[in-house]
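Aim 2 progress update. The chain analyzed this quarter is reproduced below.
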Amino acid sequence: MPTGARLDFFRYWAFDQNSANLAFFVFEVCQPGFAAGAPVINTIVSTSTSGAPGNTTGLVTLNRPVNNQDCTYLARVRFDAASTNLALQKVRLQFTR
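Predicted structure tokens:
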């Protein structure tokens, strides 16, 4: 993602046939560009499957500017149970210039 672009949305597709859910997170991790300093971690997405059985999707609108000079972006998925009835299919983080 180029600096100056705008993060529009985060979307996931999954299969959830379990009482436990999948949780999705996108983090923005920033440090001073040309100086020492501890990382600052911001959670910019936090969402999960709804528990409705079967194939599911979810969307989180972001409208956030990208800062590649000082920050990196990281997506994580948490499986709330070890089960073949929970499956990540794909995720999408869309940006515009």
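The chain has one domain: 6-96. DSSP finds no helices and six strands in the chain. These observations will guide the mutagenesis experiments scheduled for the next reporting period.
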